[in-house]
Amino acid sequence: MLDVTDELYETMKRRDTHFDGKLYVGIVSTGIVCFPSCRSRLPKRENVRVFPSLDEALRAGFRTCKRCKPDNPTQLSPDAEIANRVLEILTSRLHETLTLQDLAEKLNVSPYHLQRTFKRLTGRSPATEHRRIRMQRAQEYLRTTDDSIGSIALRVGYGSASHFSATFRKEFGICPHDYRSSLRSLSERKRTCLKS
To answer: Which residues share a beta bridge with 2?
Structure first.
């Protein structure tokens, strides 16, 4: 059994997943062992026992939590599940304008919780991530198709080519037309080098 460090107890308060799978916390008052990030009510510090493995906690008489399921390591933590679902929605719905409220309603969580959880796990807000995914997809279309800039803008969720171009320039420091031209020039130079 290990000590309950300040760092560990703080991560338990924040429901941070940093120690999940590395340490397991047994709660004396309930007899349950959990991941440190478990969403159940935070136990008093004096009721927490720390184990380096789930087996040790089970041998000490604790039973696994039905909420965070530390005995099922392939299952995502609830927060990771939220972040993954948000990413799936953002990726599959590029052409839509999605608000934080829209996402929260789809996942049945509060907008505040969704924003905070997603940003903690990915380092970005859902809006920033949606724009990033759109821009990556736009780069792909510019590389692999001859579609017009306006057509690509619509495919990645922008109502006008000018708004799309301004966002693309802000993201990459180059406009979509010049980006495509530079790729073609590079491709031509490579072909010329191979022939000589």
So the answer is: 50
